[in-house]
């Protein structure tokens, strides 16, 4: 039985992230938490509507299987 390793999300904690979601939606905000299913808690979230427009959403939970990709917006401290 092979074990699939989970993505290392600890380095994204309390940092601004940009998320591409299924269905062509984009969200940005601060990652506050995650679980073993990669469900994410994002604070200060904004839905990116295109054309420079953003819709504030507050704190949201995003199902892990909805996330296509995740990008760190803050610079990493090494």
From TrEMBL:
Main location: nucleus
PROSITE patterns, per database record: SM (PS52002)
Domain Sm: 4-76
GO CC annotations on file: catalytic step 2 spliceosome; precatalytic spliceosome; SMN-Sm protein complex; spliceosomal tri-snRNP complex; U1 snRNP; U12-type spliceosomal complex; U2 snRNP; U2-type prespliceosome
Protein name per UniProt: Small nuclear ribonucleoprotein G
One of the GO BP terms on file: spliceosomal snRNP assembly
The entry's keywords: mRNA processing, mRNA splicing, Nucleus, Ribonucleoprotein, RNA-binding, Spliceosome
InterPro entries: Lsm7/SmG-like (IPR044641), LSM_dom_sf (IPR010920), Sm (IPR047575), Sm_dom_euk/arc (IPR001163), Sm_G (IPR034098)
Localisation per UniProt entry: Nucleus
Naturally occurring in which organism (per UniProt): Kwoniella dejecticola CBS 10117
Lineage: Eukaryota, Fungi, Dikarya, Basidiomycota, Agaricomycotina
Family note: Belongs to the snRNP Sm proteins family.
Described purpose of this protein according to its UniProt entry: Plays a role in pre-mRNA splicing.
Residues annotated as signal peptide: none
GO molecular function: RNA binding
Pfam family, one: LSM
